Known about the structure:
The protein is mostly helical. It has helices at 2-12, 16-45.
Amino acid sequence: xxxxxxxxxxxxxxxxxxxxxxxxxxxxxxxxxxxxxxxxxxxxxx
Length: 46
């Protein structure tokens, strides 16, 4: 994971803070989508 950060920072000029914020946003989005998948799947299984 750290290597990915280093490559991204080298190639894009993103700061560590930008990357951390992007990662947190992505993690929250994943959690949100996962909850929706559970809700949708529960509705379909009945």
